[in-house]
Amino acid sequence: MGDHISEGRRNEPVRVALLIALATVVFVAYSAHLFYLQVIRGGEYQKKAVTIARQIERLPAQRGEIYDRNYNLPLVLNVDSFALVVVPAEIPADMRDTVFAKLASVLEEPVDELRRRIPPSYYRLFQQIEVASSVGQDVIVQIAERIDEFPGVSWYSRPKRNYLETGSFSHIIGYVGDISRDELKLYYNRGYQTGDVIGKAGIERQYDSLLRGTDGRQYKTVDVRGRRVDAELRDVDPPLMGKNVVLTIDRATQILAEKSLGERIGSIVVLKPATGEILALVSYPSFNANLIVEKGGNNEYARLLNDPRTPLIQRAIQSNYPPASTFKTIMTAAIIEEKAIPLDEKIVCHGEISYGDRVFRCHIRKPGHGPLDLASALAESCDVYFWEVGRDRLGIERIVSYAMEFGFGQATGIDLPGEAEGFVPTPQWKERRFHEKWLGGDTLNLSIGQGFMQTTPLQLADMMAMVVNEGVIYRPHLLKEVRDPRDGSIVTRVVPEVLTASSISKETFKTTKEYLRGVIVEGTARYPVNTKAVKVAGKTGTAEVGLADRWHSWFVGYGPTDAEDPDDVIVVVAMIEASNPWEWWAPYATNLVFQGYFAGQTYEEAAAQLGLLGRSMPIGQRME
Amino acid sequence: MMASIRKLFKSIDWTIPIAIVILMVIGVLFIYSSGVTSAGDLVSTEYAKQIVWAATGLALLVACAMIDLKRVSDYIPIVYGLSIALLVYTMAFGKVVNGARSWLGIVGDYGIQPSEFVKITTALFLAHYLERSAHESSSFRRFALSFAIVAVPMGLILMQPDFGTSLVFVPLYLSMAFIGGINKRYLLSFILFGGIGVVLTVMPLWQTLIAAEQSIVLRIFYEKPYVYYILLMLIVVAALALLGFRFFKKRYYYWLAYGAGIGTLGLAFSLAGQRFLKDYQVKRLIVFLDPSIDPLGSGWNILQSITAIGSGGVAGKGFLQGTQSHYRYLPQQSTDFIFSIISEELGFLGGIVVFGLFFYILVRLALSMRKLRDVASSAFVAGVFGIIFFHFMINAGMAMGVMPITGIPLLFLSYGGSSLWSICIGVGLCLGIGARRYDS
User: Fold this and answer.
1) How is domain A326-407+421-455 classified at the CATH fold level?
2) What are phi and psi of A395, to 5 degrees?
3) What CATH fold (topology level) applies to the domain A81-158?
4) Residue B415 contacts A where some CB pair is shorter than 8 Å
5) Helix/strand/coil for A228
6) pTM for this entry
7) Domain spans of chain A?
8) Which positions in chain B touch A41 (Cβ < 8 Å)?
9) Residue among A12, A35, A123 minimizing CB distance to B378
10) How far is the C-alpha of B12 from the C-alpha of B434, rounded, in Å?
């Protein structure tokens, strides 16, 4: 730093004087103000300091209830329960060990667990630390009787969730839990606090902001020792109970579907195509949400997490599978719309075709289906027909474009967390991913829904909804309406929202529907889907997964085909994973759902009528 | 070598470190007091940590007094660059404390707040630049570049977001630029622009929450679309006045253009401010004007702090005898509201002693500037002066309810290592500068 005499330096003494003057002004003013506060008005503040102070107490809000579409019995209730809190700084140091030990014995917990929740760094905290979140009345009574032995310990009412319906309902409704550190970081700005209960999965998580309500506050005026001076009524901000949520789920249909699936790993979707409302969403294996929210629920959660059958996965929306022959529905619509082949032109199925160095076999081996037009190819689910038309007449680009048009490879936007998107492979993708060219064989695979293509059961339901609605898919949803908890009035009603609108002509859809009906009347599903309660149309599917004699089994159907009111129509998708012993159950499960739903029967009645009661299907002939 | 150190020690103004040590002792005592509960239990070990911070801080202070800044001036730009890099690193990987990503964890609970140290490195670099550019003393370029040096760390800290700490850079800049000979007209314009901007930013909330009667006239300054008309009008006036000045050369047009230009910038600044600041943030800034608008939130803190101070009376309630603090009515009593505890327990007399010590340090620092021969030295001392002055004014003012709540600590007294270390480094360097004033 060299010495530099400049123009600015000449005035420096003046500038320094100015800085000192500034400091002096502030010093004098502050001293005067301090004098005013402490000497002139000191007496006044001394009185104030001794007598009155205010404390804030939190009044937790009741969480909203969840109903099915009929809005009669709640699916979830709140039951009395308490949260136990400790203000560490209020425990005298010499009593700390005894208080901890006593608290641990009352809570039936190791004292180390308690010490972990209140580490030494908290000992000076005046904040409430929650040590137990769902404590029963009995424990509170034990503490209340000897409250002088528990300095700094208090509790507040925190209703516990009681899930009246579990099993497949637990996948939809989800469950709640204490807010985690990461969640707190995310949601802090939305008013969440440490110790809050937050929805962890399903509807509880999706609509947490509706269900949680607003905590109330009580302002206590206390003296300096914390004794209450008075409690005026206006000092209470009452808590606002969370909103009640009414789902589109129909309890009876959900139970019917759950039982129709039985103890088979897989899922069933029942959807109203006219609105996108979901009547049933079943996934097996499932779990019991009550065991997770209860004390020690972490162990149950860990057990579920480690279960190789992944019961925490909601298979209907979170699992991807090859759609197999159900994809022929889209192929059929594409062939008709694109006029790829005259509808009456026949292709001869010899049971197999050779392509490259591979032989592709139809599910009926030599001599094959014989000559078939499109209608009978779909009814018989002939692979050879779709291979040849797909490869030679339609081409990969158009197949991909139609798959996308039907919503494949895109999230359906259902109001549940963690939806899988499925996948539509393209030649560009394969080149990027594997550095291999897209081959004719890949097109063959794709034409019958095998290979790289992946969909969720819900996406297949949407595919069928597109056909039923002749070009429109409404966003599938579970929320029907939001109701005020006090008088049950409707706060919001969900209106159907168009997810995809297709440019495919209505004529094409009409013909496709006709052909799909043929699958039931004279095709592959004529024996399993034999309900007399309703006229059904649909498509079977059996996906190869590389296990010997095991296949994913699909059925995607809708009915009635002759409905006057489009609101009466339902789409049913059944998906049975290949991990089950093979029994070709998907068409039968669908059959049971249609029978029960349209005849107003329970599973037992429907099964009795269809002769399926207690029947475990024998390993049957593989049909596609 | 030894001889030169002995000589250096003789020329150091030791009264400043003595005043600092007294403040540090008071600080440790009342950090201890803040950790005592109503039942008399000590529930915090912050005071013990503070002893360590204070002792190491003093060692740093003495060590820094040894540094001859003239010898290391070549490295100052590198140090500045490194400290900016550290800020960027903190923004990416720092720990979030009190909502700001401002901490770098070192070991366990110990960590540093790089933003505190950047104050010193920025002052060093700015002093360095002011020295280098002294020959173009009054140019606009010098004003703009010197401001940019401060604006970079300030902006980065604002993004953490740590509003209080970034604010310290304003007085740091103003005092350094003032002493460093930046054209006063630019500085004055800067203050005017900032003042208009801040006033207009808080005006809407001030009107709705605090003002007894809403003034309709003032509403045109923030309500859309009127505010856009005003903005447009100001721009047009400024442009016309500029043209007028160009053709008629009347001073009158110059001042008109100047006023309208500053007004335009200030109004634009307030529009940006209203967009970026959330209502609750602005509320926190103006709540001191009338704590009753938020009697349960930050207004509550102010009321409790004033009550604590007022109830201290002339001689105070005595050490460890304060009720407000031990019954937890004060938030962050070991950092933000340490002055409230001191005043409650030591009374007006104790408060005046604290004020006096700060005043003494400030005056001694200012006086030491007079004997310095180069711009860099006096500008750096002015920067440290600005930091201490601003911290004192804002923090003590906040405790007494006359300044906004910004969460900046009372230097030497509040609990915390980073701010203490950084100011010890700053003061140490100033002492070294002062002691070497006669060296060639």
Assistant:
1) Beta-lactamase (3.40.710)
2) 85, 150
3) Ribosomal Protein L30; Chain: A, (3.30.1390)
4) no
5) strand
6) 0.57
7) 81-158, 326-407+421-455
8) 310
9) A12
10) 7
